Amino acid sequence: MKILVINGPNLNMLGIREPAYYGRETYQDLLNKIRAHADAKKITVEFRQSNHEGDLVDYIQSAYEAFDGIVINPGAYTHTSIAILDAVKSVGVPTCEVHISDVNAREDFRKTSYIRAACVLTVSGHGTNGYLEAIDYLIEHYN
Ligand code: DQA
User: Fold this and answer.
1) What is the mean pLDDT of residues 74-81?
2) Ligand 1: which residue has its CA nearest to atom 12?
3) What number does the ligand 1 atom closest to the CA of 10 have?
């Protein structure tokens, strides 16, 4: 099984940005943690990160017929991007939405998620373990 893990804007700043919400693990720590989990589960993962909305659309489109699942944290584009929602709907690849912080316990504008409607699972507020939960869900249901 092959899973594409996509991170959106400012997630490259993990470990530096707002540690009260996002913890002290760096982006590289996150990738190492996901890679170790994927190796243990004997699946393949690839990583993409961008601060640009169109890049995220391109990454999602690149998963068409190439990946069995997507795990995506669209960052702030979660709350604004119809283009990212449409991209997930276009490719028909099972997609899990992940948020490190509990978006429902923060500002009201974070409670809206456009992408959620196209996702098979949303994990929010479980820290970086949320990515591993999303991977396990895809393995359980789509492997
Ligand atoms: C986030 C939550 C978003 O509201 C925020 O804009 C992010 C990160 C999270 O992982 O908790 O950039 O997606």
Assistant:
1) 98
2) 75
3) 12
